[in-house]
Amino acid sequence: MNILIVEDEAISANLLDMLMKKRGHHVLGPVATGEDAVELAYTSDPDVILMDIHLAGEIDGIDAVGAIHEKKKIPVIFITAYDENSVMERAMKHNPLAYLKKPVNPNEIESVLRESF
User: Fold this and answer.
1) Residue 41 contacts by C-beta under 8 Å, 6 or more apart in sequence?
2) Do the Cβ atoms of 30 and 16 come closer than 8 Å?
3) Is omega for the bond preceding 103 within 30 degrees of 0, making it cis?
4) pLDDT of residue 83
């Protein structure tokens, strides 16, 4: 499975990258900004996006998914430290496969992927 990782914290990004590769997935990125996520999603062919909400750059992960979905309906799993209802409500408008809280257990991601694909 081709997984686009969008995470601006280098340690978290590298950990997700390593864990997903260890489980046999092909990783695109990781990228740290919403703008880079949109560009890579348009130019590559991810099966799913692991998207942090708070990102470096001008747009957050929710807006990045909105921009991506204008051209490609790529499934997304939001991974975030945010637990505010307003943030979650914005994210849920994009019909994510899941909304996972940090620190995320890689087994949770695999479980969502198995159930969804």
Assistant:
1) 4, 49, 68, 72, 74
2) yes
3) yes
4) 81
Give residue 5's pLDDT.
98
- The residue extents of the domains of the chain are 2-116
Q: What is the dihedral of CA 62, 63, 69, 75, to 10 degrees?
A: -20
Q: What is the pTM of this model?
A: 0.96
2-116 falls under which CATH superfamily?
Response regulator (3.40.50.2300)
Would you call 29 exposed, middle or buried from its count of C-beta atoms within 10 A (0-12, 13-18, 19+)? buried
Give 24's contacts (C-beta < 8 A, 6+ positions apart): none
Q: What pLDDT is recorded for position 15?
A: 94
Cα(102)–Cα(50) distance, rounded to whole angstroms?
12
Query: Given the structure tokens 């637990």, which residue do they identify?
Result: 83
**Which residues are within 8 A (CB) of 35 and not within 5 positions of it... i.e. 6 or more apart?**
57, 58, 59, 64
Q: What is the mean pLDDT of residues 69-98?
A: 95
